[in-house]
Amino acid sequence: MSPAGALLVAGTTSDAGKSVVTAGICRWLSRQGVKVAPFKAQNMSLNSFVTHDGAEIGRAQAMQAAAARVEPEAAMNPVLLKPGSDQRSQVVVLGRPVAEVGALDYRERKPALLRIALDCLDDLRSRHDVVICEGAGSPAEINLRDRDIANMGLAVAARLPVVVVGDIDRGGVFASMFGTLALLSAEDQRHLGGWIVNKFRGDVRLLQPGLDQLRELTHRPTLGVLPMLPGLWLDAEDSLDLSGVAAAAPAGPPVGRDVLRVSVVRLPRLSNFTDIDALAQEPGVLVRWATRPEELADADLVVLPGTRATVADLAWLREQRLDTAVQARAAEGRPVLGVCGGFQMLGRTITDEVESGAGLVEGLSLLPVRIRFAAAKTLARPVGTAFGETVHGYEIHHGQAAVEGGEPFLDGCREGAVWGTTWHGALENDGFRRAFLREVARLAGRAFEPAPDTSFAAAREQRLDRLGDLIERHADTGALLRLIEQGVPADLPFVPPGAPVPPGAA
Fold first, then answer.
1. Element (H, E) at 279
2. Which of 65, 125, 194, 389 is close enough to 431 for a disulfide, judged by CB 3.0 to 4.6 Å?
């Protein structure tokens, strides 16, 4: 059976599991032969991706497109916000940056952006059997509802049925679900068709009395209780607080005698941290985040990752005395890798009148490179070679590098044991990653050998299949299909704030 229509997956909070559930439904539908696409009207994320036609979208939507087995495109995430500070964000519309705005300025743009989002959604629906939409934050942000374009504002404008995901692992899931519904207007409540409980541990029979009472209180069914799935490592999405982003343990025992230790500097405005995922998948590679000099001391490789605020994060690096720790490593011939913003920090100078307005800033002087920020953002999908291996990557940066020496390396350079590149995603190329890690191990004096058959693409597919299994085995797929096919539920009663507890629920 081929359903037609769309569904919005909202959440009681950020990080409730909207991205995971959206991806899981996309993979499950794709398995049924349904032509499905993901959609997120507005995303706030420092983790982005470049489509084949050079558009920048949220990395989570690219992941969901992979789950749906379709090519990612700008229409899947028409509005992307990339915070550069607590007060201002870069606004990316249809894959291209259009402005740097504060929260109040952005609010005035929302009616026009809603029209763009609705046009994109209509376009996707015209070309696919089903579109699974993901909300942003919570649909009950009552201070933002009048100009909402990602949650109930989108649902009402596009007549979308809504399911709400709640994270039971953090506690208070029943209160957050009831409270979400009770804060919605009568018009918004009509769109909410059911609940999905996420990250459950234990025997679901112990949860059933709560689910029964939730249905009595809200008149909506629970459409799934999804168990906790540790180790998914799926592309993180819209949270600005990256404290929950943890590096993984080794994927398996080392092939050689030694483990290879990688310390990744956790910059305050860390972006595209998915660059690290492929390292964490490699058997015998231990990846950990670092914020103090001593956390770099025993590392065989230090990585300076991408950042949305290169100059500000370089200042932070110096405040934490991490700059001298990185420079000392390089002087000793110990490996350092800089990616995008991290590469820019490794150069001699940075001239930035665009992102920070700081003008000329001294870099770490570990690579013979001078960086000048351009107003136009580079968005590209380059292909090249390194260590004799073909490498595919993607670029998202304002900084333009003038390389003044060293050995060429993926549009950047190498000087001794220090490498720098503007390319994200390079480490996802299996042959290149193995060759790079062999060189790192040689320089670090480690008896480490990469596994010959580790496939990052296969590992990602396995994780997406686990999400499809999660929906197929633990969600009421029949009820989800009915919502998708039939649209907004009919005749659901309004639940006012402070609704009485049903008899026997106390």
1. helix 277-281
2. 389
Q: Tell me: the pLDDT tens digits for 46-94?
A: 889 999 999 999 999 999 999 999 999 999 999 999 987 777 889 999 9
Contacts of 270 (CB under 8 A, 6+ apart): 46, 242, 245, 305, 306, 307
Q: Which two tokens stand for residue 131?
A: 């579109």
Q: Could you confirm whether 424 is annotated as catalytic?
A: yes
Domains of the chain: 5-234+461-486 (3.40.50.300), 252-453 (3.40.50.880)
Q: Which of 128, 397, 398, 424 is catalytic?
A: 424
Return all residues near 241 (Cβ < 8 A) that are at least 6 apart.
none
Question: Sign (positive/negative) of CA torsion 157, 127, 79, 141?
Answer: positive
355 — pLDDT class (breaks 50, 70, 90): confident
What is the DSSP pairing of strand 260-265 with strand 130-134? unpaired
- Judge whether 247 and 299 are in contact, CB under 8 Å: no
**pLDDT tens-place string over residues 115-138:** 999 999 999 999 999 999 999 999
CA atoms within 13 A on the CB side of 314: 25
Signed CA dihedral, 191, 196, 197, 199: sign only: negative
**Which residues have a Cβ under 8 Å from the Cβ of 376 and sit 6 or more positions away?**
398
Per the annotation, the verdict on 340 as an active-site residue is yes
Kindly report the pTM of this predicted structure.
Answer: 0.90
Reported confidence tier of residue 492, pLDDT bands at 50, 70, 90 = confident
**Quick one: which of 308, 380, 374 has its CA closest to 340?**
308
Residue 62 — φ and ψ, nearest 5°? Answer: -65, -40
Measured distance CA(3)–CA(241) in Å, rounded: 37
* Per annotation, catalytic residue among 133, 340, 397, 398: 340
Find the range with the poorest average confidence among 101-110, 205-214, 417-426: 101-110
